[in-house]
Specification:
The chain is α/β, with parallel strands linked by helices. It is built from 8 helices and 12 strands. The chain has a 5-stranded parallel beta sheet, sandwiched between helices. It has a 4-stranded antiparallel beta sheet with strand order 6-7-8-9, with helices on one face. Strand 3, helix 3 and strand 4 form a beta-alpha-beta unit. It is elongated. The chain starts with a strand and ends with a strand. The structure holds calcium ion. Calcium ion (CA) binds next to loops. Calcium ion binds next to loops.
């Protein structure tokens, strides 16, 4: 599955870490910067699909940073984070080429929903397709024709990993890496429990492929 790349510019280290971890778990490829200077130095090599930019930075105003990025030809949509809830600030944010804003403190789920909305508005399609099975990362839904089932984020990531190589056995280790955060302790039978749940859900999609066990090795989608 191709992951949309999100560039985060946030000087608050705790929030930056939280965004990095949370967005990675949501399936984004995250590059995080703590200063405008660092971001401007790196942005050309990063080619982001979207940006999350804090307005209040120690070395610049986030709106000016976005203007500079636009001048460099970066056209990816931007979500501004602002501690200020004043309307003039919001308008200035949009004038600087921003596409959306969130006022701190914000709900993480709200940020993820807005991020997907902006990325999709840009016409990018991150849906994974394996045969008739479609996996939508924005909604964590699996669909087949007119039938749809909702998956948990972990179920979604495991199934998307299988769907990335349909017909091929994907090793258990690769599935655990795809499904759980880096460093998470995942017991051997936990993966099997998730696969069992996925099989039950896939049964509600009449035309969907099946998850086949390769004993001791992994699973495949066929
Ligand atoms: Ca700040």
């Amino acid at each position: 599955m191709i992951e949309p790349r999100v560039l985060v510019l946030e000087d608050d280290q705790e929030l930056r870490r939280l965004l990095h971890r949370g967005l990675t778990e949501e399936g984004f490829d995250v590059v995080a910067s703590g200063s405008a200077a660092d971001l401007l130095a790196r942005v050309a090599s990063v080619e982001p699909d979207a940006l999350i930019v804090d307005i209040g930075l120690p070395d610049a105003d986030g709106r000016d940073v976005v203007q500079a990025l636009r001048a460099q030809g970066v056209s990816a949509p931007v979500i501004f984070l602002t501690a200020r809830d004043a309307l003039p600030d919001r308008l200035a944010g949009f004038a600087a080429g921003g596409d959306d804003y969130l006022t701190k403190p914000f709900a993480f789920a709200e940020l993820v929903a807005r991020l997907w909305a902006l990325i999709r508005r840009g016409g990018a399609d991150y849906v994974t397709q394996a045969g008739s099975l479609r996996l939508d990362p924005a909604t964590h839904a699996a669909t087949c024709g007119d039938a749809a089932v909702d998956l948990t984020p972990t179920e979604f990531r495991v199934l998307a990993r299988l769907a990335a190589q349909p017909g091929e056995t994907v090793r258990r280790r690769a599935l655990v890496q795809a499904g759980w955060p880096h460093g998470a302790i995942v017991h051997d039978n936990t993966l099997d429990v998730y696969v069992a749940a996925l099989r039950r859900k896939l049964r509600d999609l009449p035309e969907a492929p099946e998850i086949v066990t390769a004993h001791g090795v992994g699973y495949s989608l066929r």
